[in-house]
Write a structure and sequence with these properties.
binds FE2/S2 (inorganic) cluster; Naphthalene 1,2-dioxygenase Alpha Subunit, Chain A, domain 1; alpha+beta; binds fe (ii) ion; 21% helix; Rieske Iron-sulfur Protein; 431 residues
């Protein structure tokens, strides 16, 4: 349970809020590269409650400007890409990617008025088919070199989808590993359970349903956030140990997709549109080779072309009571992102965490919230929070360790933790 003040700190990300200033210390995904193809139209984007326009100039470079023209406020996403920038279609003012006003048709020859207009602009970078933006003035840090962002293109799969709720609810769901065998459970005896290969149950769906037994969960602070250890009996006499990470400020690195055995992992980046809506960017990669394109096809089968889920709050997620009797625990289908959206959206657009009652299985969520609150306090006191990476020698992210393995019954969770730390201590940890 959090106090109202703590919940506000964690959930409010608009300009001027402490949480918003915290989020603005880091690069944030602002769109998929596919949304602004070369020669394509500019798009309006809303990020951290700011209305912006994203475009690709004639050289193919992404630019991010304030949505409303500095002249008389018209929407620049209707503009023309030409002459080295974005031109407003109202009176023809032209802006480059840095917000310089290059032309003001109609002003007298020799006028220097255009030099005195500086339109809002933010730096952008394109990495791994994602456009990242830095919504703050001053020298931007580096984008952390997560392995997923540097995997070869055919080893990687990237998409996003809309969540009708605050970003934190989405990301907290990733720290909540205990929900997997319940919410995502397949019923014993069903075709889904039979189809599930035993080894896959270590990383993804399993049939446990109501047979959930004691699980162990532990966490520790790292230089990048919170590392979580989790041992889950699978109901067949074996157990899975997962090592996963909540990464400051709003993402996680978890087993999933192709990464069940540790061969790559999955990043979920929960990006505030505003305080009531968010995008969940998903970046999966396989370390050892090209990804199976079916991974993407299964997910996109429940998505519209503009990255919304077809099963959503407005249609009660198409919950199927017959399926609940015969196949799945939740009746929400076998594609997890539908059930995950249900879990994160139905507490309300901004969950009132003064009303929740967290138990033993929620230890990692409690630790993660404490870690975030401490990082926000760093910002409030004028310090860079943790995981703002400012030099290449501190940008080795190989200690963002993600595993999902059959548990060794002879090994305690603490021994797994010590092993992960051994690896971490070989690396330079930013102070
Ligand atoms: S409003 Fe954009 S040029 Fe006038
Ligand atoms: Fe889930």
């Amino acid at each position: 349970m959090l106090t109202k003040a703590e919940n506000d700190l964690l959930t409010q990300t608009g300009p001027g809020t402490p949480g918003g200033q915290f989020m603005r210390r880091y690069w944030q995904p602002v769109a998929l590269s596919a949304e602004i193809p070369a020669g394509g139209a500019p798009i309006p984007v809303r990020l951290l409650s700011e209305d912006l326009v994203l475009f690709r100039d004639e050289k193919g470079q992404p630019g991010l400007l304030g949505l409303h023209c500095s002249h008389r406020g018209a929407d620049l996403s209707y503009g023309r890409i030409e002459d080295g920038g974005l031109r407003c279609i109202y009176h023809g003012w032209l802006y480059d990617r840095d917000g310089r006003c290059l032309e003001q048709p109609g002003e007298p020859a020799g006028s220097t008025f255009h030099e005195r207009v500086r339109h809002m602009s933010y730096p952008c970078q394109e990495v791994a088919d994602v456009i990242f933006a830095y919504l703050r003035q001053g020298e931007p840090p580096l984008i952390p070199a997560y392995e997923a962002l540097h995997a070869p293109a055919d080893h990687r799969w990237v998409t996003k989808y809309f969540n009708d709720c605050n970003y934190l609810q989405g990301n907290d769901g990733n720290a909540d590993a205990a929900h997997v065998p319940v919410l995502h459970g397949f019923l014993p005896g069903s075709d889904l359970a039979a189809r599930q290969p035993k080894e896959a149950s270590f990383s993804g769906p399993n049939y446990v349903g109501r047979q959930v037994t004691m699980l162990e969960i532990d966490s520790e602070d790292t230089d990048y956030g919170t590392r979580i250890f989790h041992r889950q009996p699978d109901g067949r006499g074996d157990a899975t140990v997962r090592i996963m990470n909540m990464v400051l400020p709003n993402l996680c690195a978890v087993p999933g997709g192709p990464a069940g055995s540790g061969d790559g992992y999955l990043i979920y980046w929960h990006v505030p549109i505003d305080d009531e809506h968010s995008w969940r960017y998903a970046i999966a990669f396989k370390r050892s080779g090209p990804l199976d394109p079916d991974l993407g096809r299964r997910r996109t089968s429940v998505m519209t072309p503009d990255y919304h889920l077809t099963r959503n709050k407005s249609n009660r997620y198409l919950q199927d009571r017959e399926e609940m009797r015969t196949r799945t625990f939740s009746g929400l289908g076998e594609i997890f992102i539908v059930a995950d959206s249900w879990a994160t959206e139905t507490p309300g657009q901004i969950q009132d965490r003064t009303q929740e009652h967290l138990g033993t299985i929620d230890r990692a969520i409690i630790a993660w919230h404490r870690r975030m609150l401490a990082a926000i306090r760093d910002c409030q006191e004028g310090r860079d929070p943790p995981h703002v990476v400012r030099s290449p020698e501190h940008n080795d992210m190989s200690h963002v360790l993600v595993r999902a393995d059959a548990a060794d019954p002879a090994k305690t969770l603490d021994e797994y933790r010590q092993q992960a730390n051994l690896r971490r201590e070989q690396l330079t940890v930013q102070s």
